[in-house]
Design a protein that fits this description.
Distance between the termini: 24 Å
Number of helices: 9
Helix content: 10-25%
Low-confidence stretches: 217-261, 430-441, 444-457, 606-645
Shape: globular
Number of strands: 35
Length: 647
């Protein structure tokens, strides 16, 4: 670790990550923590967030121009380490009966008892958060740990599992996929939404593990029934409203914390049929990457923004995101709008409207529903997700300032179910939709990972109902082309493979969801092959990152992606094209168009970018500020996603 007053090392390399983020390679964790402290204390202009990892810093910005400026500035940045406030000392009681304990001890030349003794005798320090809310990477003071990950990650790791990987130890806060070595379990909650901060272990905290005996046979630790009950409850919730994740596991929101309490509001709609999946979403919760919290939120921001604007809401108001159609009944007179996937809209008049035939309505038009009217949104015939906004904005309890449902982390409201009553937060009043002065740009939340702050659009201001607009769906056929910036880890692939990545027509598989799109090569093409062997240390991720796991089949991260990932990212889809990804269903074809991050101009070939994709060492000429956005590619479609990388 850097001593107080010492100058941290300069960047080994600086990489552009899409158009609104920068990744910095550093020498060691000490430099990472010094850089992170400096950039957190004095953020750069338009800095949205900064995420620390084992040997990198990911900095996200609000604009392409700010990312270009950060890219230039950070090449020569050398912060001075300041005195750190001493953290808390946290002791975790652990039952050492993990599934991997014996095999791991044997591989390290130890007995299980000696491995337990080594783990409990060690002094651990909270280094950085990542992957999931409350998952804190703890580093050993001795530096005497090097534990390989499992060859095959588990699809579901029980909550409270104590695990080792590389030089780190950590506790899984909830049931998630994971590839770390499990050595024990604790009942100490690692995440509490009502606490400040919500994560138990923060950077700088001292952590000690204490071996204890289980209190009951068949239990899960000192309070074994607690973990068993939590696991059973998560399984039950998965059956009721979970969503299939990429690796086949079920991911469903956690049932604990403030998100479950009913938000105050006026009942306006009853859900008669919730379709395949209906979620409450808004523009997400950027700025909490250090806690392991992704920004989440709607995956087609343009469609959501337009739906809210049509009914007079602020752009960040909560609304419904639906797959497979839905049917609702109005409890009072209200105004709604539906955008996104091409789908039929039908209103069956209720008593207030008088008997009559069903009425057809167009997308992206305000629709007045009288009391008793029933609105049916059919399944999408083009695109994947429909967005339904209600005048006033849906009322839902917020977590970290957002009502978004995050399927990977478990934050936010439960999925909407048939029979639910939907409430609105505000009564209509006159005012501009951005009267509070906050940004009205839906792209401002694209990259995620930053501090939301003043850049988040208004959620509570209501203005007049808008006029009809074109539906903003950017999907017009069975395939899509999206622009991407090669890297930050394109150098893990030979130039020929980078070129092939851009040439192949990739097929969206049915294992995709809101976490990311899992792709398979089409037209009898082979999966991608890496040029490098070994593992990549976990580093910060953003929406649009295209990870390539060992099987060579890319995964494109969407809104609910993990905050950190350990597979090389060959390219990053630009923020301006993320809405396209969010509307691609299984079976759709996807191609990637490498572009220059400064002006989004297509590159002559992927080979021409290969040398630059490795990043810019200190002293290299920086890119000019970006500001010009190219026209959107024609053609798209959409599907849910997956995650390949888990601790």
């Amino acid at each position: 670790m850097s001593a107080e007053g010492a100058v941290a090392g300069r960047a080994r390399a600086v990489h552009r990550v899409g158009t609104r983020a920068v990744l910095v390679d550093l020498a060691d964790l000490g430099d990472v923590m010094t850089w992170h402290a400096a950039l957190s204390a004095e953020p750069l202009s338009e800095q949205r967030g900064v995420v620390a990892a084992a040997s990198t810093i990911l900095l996200t910005t609000n604009t392409p121009a700010a990312a270009a400026d950060a890219f230039a500035f950070l090449r020569d940045f050398a912060p001075t380490s300041a005195a750190r406030e001493s953290g808390r000392e946290i002791t975790l009681d652990v039952v050492y009966d993990g599934e991997d304990l014996a095999a791991l001890a044997d591989s390290l030349g130890l007995t299980p008892d000696s491995l337990i003794e080594k783990h409990t005798a060690e002094t651990w320090t909270g280094a950085f958060g990542g992957f999931a809310p409350g998952f804190t990477y703890c580093i050993a003071e001795s530096g005497d740990w090097d534990v390989p990950r499992r060859d095959s990650p588990r699809t579901a790791v029980p909550p409270g599992s104590v695990a080792l990987a590389g030089e780190f130890s950590a506790v899984y806060p909830r049931r998630t996929p994971g590839g770390w070595q499990l050595i024990g379990r604790t009942d100490t909650p690692m995440w509490d939404e009502s606490a400040e901060p919500p994560a138990l272990i923060a950077s700088g905290d001292t952590v000690r593990y204490r071996a204890v005996r289980p209190r009951s046979e068949g239990g899960a630790g000192p309070d074994g029934a607690d973990h068993a009950a939590q696991a059973a409850e998560e399984d039950a919730r998965a059956d009721a409203g979970g969503h299939a994740a990429p690796s086949g596991e079920t991911v469903s929101p956690s049932s604990t914390g403030p998100a479950d309490r009913a938000a105050a509001g006026r009942p306006v709609l009853t859900v008669e049929d919730s379709g395949l999946l209906t979620l409450v979403e808004d523009l997400g919760r950027p700025g909490y990457g250090d806690l392991g919290v992704a920004s989440s939120g709607v995956v087609d921001r343009g469609s959501a923004w337009t739906a809210n604007r049509l009914v007079g809401n602020g752009g960040g108001a909560a609304l419904l995101e639906n797959i497979g159609g839905l049917r609702i009944t109005a409890l009072v007179d209200t105004v709604v709008a539906v955008t996104g996937a091409e789908a039929p809209l039908t209103v069956m008049p209720g008593r207030t409207s008088g008997a009559g035939e069903p009425r057809r309505h167009r997308l992206a038009h305000p629709v007045l529903l009288r009391t008793g009217d029933e609105l049916t949104v059919g399944p999408g015939t083009q695109g994947m997700r429909s967005y339904l906004a209600v005048r006033g904005g849906l009322a839902a309890a917020e977590v970290l300032g957002s009502a978004a449902t995050d399927l990977l982390s478990g934050l936010g409201p439960d999925p909407v179910k048939t029979g639910d009553t939907l409430r609105v937060r505000n009564r209509p009043r006159t005012g501009g939709a951005a009267a509070d002065g906050r940004s009205s740009d839906p792209q401002a939340t694209a990259s995620g990972g930053g501090s939301g702050g003043d850049s988040r659009p208004a959620t509570g201001v209501i203005s007049a109902v808008g006029g009809a607009e074109p539906n903003p769906l950017r999907v017009t056929g069975p395939g899509a082309a999206v622009r991407c910036v090669l890297g930050p880890r394109a150098d893990w692939f030979a130039p020929a493979e980078q070129a092939r990545f851009a040439r192949v027509s990739w097929e969206v598989t049915g294992e995709s969801n809101r976490v990311g799109l899992r792709l398979a090569p089409g037209d009898d093409e082979a999966p991608l092959e890496r040029e490098r062997e070994g593992e990549l240390a976990s580093e910060g991720m953003i929406s649009g990152a295209v990870q390539v796991p060992p099987n060579g089949r890319p995964v494109v991260f969407l809104a609910d992606h993990p905050v950190t990932g350990g597979y090389p990212v060959i390219a990053t889809v630009v923020a301006e094209d993320l809405d396209v990804l969010g509307q691609l269903p299984p079976g759709a074809r996807l191609t990637f168009v490498p572009v220059d991050p400064t002006d989004l101009a297509p590159l002559a070939s992927a080979d021409a970018q290969a040398g630059r994709s490795a990043g810019a060492p200190a002293g290299q000429e920086a890119d000019a500020p970006a500001g010009k956005e190219a026209a959107a590619p024609a053609d798209d479609r959409s599907v849910p996603a997956e995650t390949e990388d888990s601790p």
